[in-house]
Amino acid sequence: MAIFKAVYNILWGDLVRIPLPGGSVLGLSLLVMILIPAGLYFTIRTRVLPFRLFPEMIKVTLESHQKDEKESISGLQALIVSTACRVGMGNLVGVVAAISAGGAGAVFWMWVIALLGSSTAFIEATLAQLYKEKDPLYGGYRGGPAYYLHHLFVREGSRRKHSVVACLFALSGLICWCGISQVTSNSISAAFKNAFQIPPLWSTTVLVALAAVVVLRKKATVKVLDIVVPVMAACYFFLTLFIIVKNAALLPSVFQRIFAEAFGLRQAVSGGIGAVIMNGAKRGLFSNEAGSGSAPCAAAAADISHPAKEGLLQSLGVFIDTIVICSCSAMVMLLTPESLTHGLEGMDLLQTAMRYHLGTFGVILIAVILWLFSFSTFLGILFYARSNIAYLFGDHWLPQTLYKVLALAMLFVGGLAAYQFVWDLGDVGIGLMTIFNMIALIPLAPKALQSLQDYENQLEKNLRGRKK
């Protein structure tokens, strides 16, 4: 725990402290100093891709259900898998944590991270497609940062089977996803105890049993996510949209509060602007995953006609996650009177807000939605783990199965007790993943940019990204 705490402080602690007017301090962590400049760089190099090619993202999404090989997954299915993790714990627990610690202003910085992260997501997903390879165990394709890191550090034709940096990324991912497993089950058990008075042991046992039935079957994960993710995202979006429309008269004051606190104009918020920015950026990364290297593990599996298409799909995924779904979660909490939520944090804050808007039904509904979000997140992270386990241990069923059993055990333990160490475990894992992933993104970015240029050239000729 001491080692993890030290690493956590290096990744997320204030490496640089900038004094601000009013006595506040802006503390910049290592990850913020890496992600924001990288996001700006990729946004400039892609010529503001998230805005310029947004209509094309929609078109690609509508047409990306086709695939050439029976055992592979389509581009749309890869987006659904990554969305299962993005539109999951980060959208509820992550947003609640950001607002609890950083106030309403943290929402603004989550938006900034998302807009910059969309370009980063394009680069890493396109690289995942460019360096993907056949998957002899599950069929179709596999890949991700471990694989393009391998190509960066191991010369073509070399007998080396592993790169040190690629192995470190893969291990960091496995650590991160074990931590997330515990967070998901703990949030579910707490929500079900508050809503239904169900003991954590019971709710956790049912969750683990259902998860085991899905993940221990070869082809079940993507099939289940194909159904669960669109349904849960649509239900949650329209539910929160109803609450927002119902309280439309309060929206101007909510946005005023977000922007005022974002720039430290209300100094009473958790230590001023420094805490606001850091919590928004931290939970923004945890939610949309752009730059962390998680989503490319799904993007590489897509059987799609052009690498840039998958990049556009994953860029849209960041928009869906943060600008749409995370904003909906934030609005539900910020449209609740501060007198009711003052001093609350975590699931207590979210459930109090839902009780205010929808009564007891709201508490029950948010517990059910949280269950779906968390369940899909767990399935998604185990899909991510496949390619990393294969890179570390080869194409064998034993390590694949052992990691699934470990993740299920962590899921069970997390449902029975809450540990701050578990949150730190997930944060350390995703932080290390981001560091190792960024080592590859900058030098390999020209490959992704060439793919983007090729795709846009095809668009000009009305070829729509045919295979080269």
Characterise the protein shown here.
Helix content is 75%, strand content 3%. It has 468 residues and is mainly alpha-helical. β3 and β4 form a beta hairpin. The protein is globular. The N and C termini lie far apart (50 Å). Residues 267-271 have low confidence and may be disordered.
Quick rundown:
The protein is mainly α and 468 residues long. It has helices at residues 2-12, 30-45, 49-52, 54-63, 75-86, 89-102, 105-130, 145-153, 164-196, 200-215, 220-246, 251-262, 273-288, 295-299, 307-334, 338-341, 346-358, 360-393, 397-416, 420-460, and strands at residues 16-19, 25-28, 133-134, 141-142. It has 20 helices and four strands.
Structural key phrases:
globular, single chain, two-stranded antiparallel ribbon
> Residue-averaged pLDDT, rounded?
80
Question: N- to C-terminal separation?
Answer: 50 Å
The fraction of residues assigned to DSSP E strands is: under 5%
Order of helices and strands: HEEHHHHHHEEHHHHHHHHHHHHH
Largest sheet: 2 strands, antiparallel
* Estimated radius of gyration: 21 Å
Helix proportion: over 70%
Helical segment tally? 20
Described by the principal axes of the CA atoms, the overall outline is: globular
| Structural class estimated from helices and strands | mainly alpha
SS elements, strand count: 4
Runs in which pLDDT lies below 50 for 5 or more consecutive residues are 267-271
